[in-house]
């Protein structure tokens, strides 16, 4: 953050009543408190011209956000956001929270999707030609508005999903952080990949025309909220943030597991849209848990691409609908992954118990409801594997049952765990059926021959379940790596100072690289950094497009396409492609 940055954020040590602006913050009384002597002198708190400029630029935004913070419980309308208006009517459904009262919400259908998509198409005519600075300001304001509603969003999110407040607060910080990251990313402009081949009128045997190329937004994008991340992968999550950054209007299909949380975030996006004076169709939000609303969204002729995070079955059905359209569109779906870990001998000899304890923590984080949950551990049979298993089992046994996101997810976990435990050649080391929406950890063990002979053992069971696969030699470990389907992550636990481990890792590396979008060494994949170099993707069935990522700044490329302009005067070019000055 530099002095001229007018982003707003809470200053934690001063409580809820202060907002950071650049190197200082505005207090509830409307005054400016400098962070250091670049904006005011330390002795008297005097105003420099730079401080005055920053303060005046942010004063109206800060005043509006302060007023919002005084409303501790923003009201739920239970409606859809379409063309800048909150609209209801028709059928309704009720939320099914883990705790607290249920609420009623409008059930979307083809008419609501059509209205939202048409509004998005209308908006694209202007939003697609906004400046990068305008879109960056919009993204930052969305983050500010979400932060301003933070308490209410956390409260209803915890009620609806059963996730702890600390987890939701962290997820909100991640969500707002990635919005601001994309603002910075588009401000830099590198993502445009601008290229210019100047005209060569005297070239023989034929002259070359003037050619200019850059990446341009594709049009309205559909985004499906995810059950397991009500903030970071939902209404204003990475798909929405990257699409808006690219210049694409967005229509979000809210997830029925957290409709209240989704609506409050949609209110924040709409408030930001209004504050920035953008077309009302730039962002739409349609509620509904039926298949019909999702089908209507991906088949609407004005939708140009889809972002999805969810199950393999549901995602594949939507992918097929996109492919079957008269004009097929890209479907960027994250569908399923078991994220195997390969435990090499020297690492196991040195720290098998520590790796086991760490694995248990990763398996049970968020009740195992992470797409990067490392569900399979592959290790050489022997005493070190036994020590690893014992440590894992002891750590898992100490984890109490946790609340899962929905009754349906909990039931699917119970059925999946029971199915795997009942498979021939699989031993149950720890496991309990669970009750209602709660789930306790499971630990299973099998050998490489059984694992390779039964492909179902390599399928995702969404929840806190781990499967240990023991091998007899490095060749079997490599055989398992070859047999894997596409994954989001693969992990090597190795001793970098041991020549045998390094050699084994080098042999596995070409196999792992073909199977996953992210390869870790000596870590656990449940943390996904939001950064320029991150890849959260992989070959099918991890995702439906192996060349894309849904996390990190490269995610913006999903919503862009290259356009070449030949012999075009500056006046008709997109602003970012015109000659300087």
Polypeptide structure, described:
The structure is a single chain. With 581 residues, this protein is an alpha/beta fold. The chain contains 15 helices and 25 strands. Strand 14 (305-309), helix 9 (312-324) and strand 15 form a beta-alpha-beta unit. The model is unreliable at 1-73 (pLDDT under 50).
Report the end-to-end length measured between terminal Cα atoms: 28 Å
Strand composition percent:
15-25%
Radius of gyration: 26 Å
Annotation field: number of helices: 15
Brief characterization of the structure:
The protein is of the alpha/beta class and 581 residues long.
Question: Which labels suit this protein?
Answer:
single chain; 581 residues; alpha/beta; seven-stranded mixed beta sheet; five-stranded parallel beta sheet; 15 helices; 25 strands; 18% strand; disordered N terminus
Topology:
Layout: E1 8-10, E2 19-21, E3 24-26, E4 32-34, H1 49-69, E5 80-82, E6 85-87, E7 92-94, E8 104-106, H2 110-127, H3 132-148, H4 150-161, H5 165-188, E9 195-197, E10 211-217, E11 221-224, H6 238-246, E12 250-253, H7 259-275, E13 283-286, H8 291-299, E14 305-309, H9 312-324, E15 331-334, E16 341-343, H10 345-364, E17 376-380, H11 383-397, E18 402-403, H12 407-421, E19 427-430, E20 438-439, E21 442-447, H13 448-453, E22 465-471, H14 474-483, E23 487-493, H15 499-513, E24 516-521, E25 560-566
Parallel strand pairs: 11-12, 11-14, 12-13, 14-15, 16-17, 16-23, 17-22, 21-22, 23-24
Antiparallel strand pairs: 1-2, 2-3, 3-4, 5-6, 7-8, 9-10, 10-25, 18-20, 19-21
Helix pairs in contact: 2-8, 3-5, 3-6, 3-7, 4-5, 4-7, 5-6, 10-11, 14-15
